[in-house]
């Protein structure tokens, strides 16, 4: 569980936040406990037919507790789920950053879109669900159990001891037994089956056009359906012990109530009304233990998800130094050989210099850009900035924009701000208009236009213009652009290259260093 604790800590979950969520949940169950006990007192007192005024306070208290139970349940859900959702937001940011830093088209750490969806969606949810499904229920059960045992002990010490032993059985032994009897292989298989189904579904949805053109669309859809069926079957097999756990909890509760009732009849010498409250108290107190067995099993699921996330975040590259620490942005490439190619590169890129690299496919142009950006290690040679040849130094100053850069299913503004979160609307719009997107903005909703299907919402030329605008809105002093004029008409492509190589640049910086790779002159 060390990975889980580390992720929760990275997600900003503090002990005092957990205490607040546990207290809110405990107040909810204490209200329910008080409602049951006071209702029992009313029942046992009402048969004596006292004056109604004698019961007025108790009747009002029952109403108040009934209302407060619902109110505190709402507050409890707000606090605990707000904590979990905030942790989920922070954890997804951490995982996304790790994926962004480790995933390149040529790296061993590459993740498919389905893998990324699983890590970012399912596994992060499983880890943060640990707060709501395990930590809060366990802490709440502890608080309510202490209060119930204390109150029962004050009424009848022997009954308090019986309730304490029973709570140890339902709160410790049954969860332990459930965790031991739960087949961890089945639990892991259920998680992996669900992840496999998510990946199959993502594959079918993302590549439906290609699959249809290849005539295998139905085959891939059937494969996703089979994966869904296997996930459901594995989930059923993994939860077969739930009925056994429910039976053991119910049996423990029933035996405890019978034992306390017998002890009360034999030994309690006080008012019979308090004897009824004693029995109802023990019966109501078990509500807090109902989810403990599931909480212990969910801990295994969380452990599996944490290990999967650790494999991603553990491969994260070290954080680059601040760009402001560098005064010399000269990029010097000496006898550099990149992965999967024998070509040797030697050149120097002075500050604000712009360079076009052309050549046939397969010569290693894109691999060179990834190496210069610090995302791939070179086979030999070096690439340095201001004399610093570390990959972290290059990542701090260089931004690489690949040809297949992702467009998100959100509006134009947020897609551009991927490269510069602080980019103002005026800068974004001016850059897009300089790249020929003005008419398109005017005929749609401007920067608020939502790309419902991501890149599929645009033509290939519009997509290239939008990605180029994203790159130019970045504040990086050195940009590496892979095929920025692909899928654009020859006239516009020539104009864009002329701007990129010889004229003041649109975007955040009119002058900066550029390396452009292209198949054509």
UniProtKB/TrEMBL annotation:
InterPro entries: AAA+_ATPase, ABC1_TM_dom, ABC1_TM_sf, ABC_CydC/D, ABC_transporter-like_ATP-bd, ABC_transporter-like_CS, P-loop_NTPase, Type_1_exporter. GO terms for biological process: cell redox homeostasis; glutathione transmembrane transport. It is found in: Cell inner membrane. The chain crosses the membrane at residues 21-43, 55-72, 130-153, 159-178, 246-265. Residues 19-304 form the ABC transmembrane type-1 domain. Belongs to the ABC transporter superfamily. Siderophore-Fe(3+) uptake transporter (SIUT) (TC 3.A.1.21) family. The gene is cydC. PANTHER family: ATP-BINDING CASSETTE SUB-FAMILY B, ATP-BINDING CASSETTE SUB-FAMILY B MEMBER 6. It comes from Corynebacterium pseudotuberculosis (strain C231). This is Thiol reductant ABC exporter subunit CydC. It is a multi-pass membrane protein. GO terms for molecular function: ABC-type transporter activity; ATP binding; ATP hydrolysis activity; ATPase-coupled lipid transmembrane transporter activity.
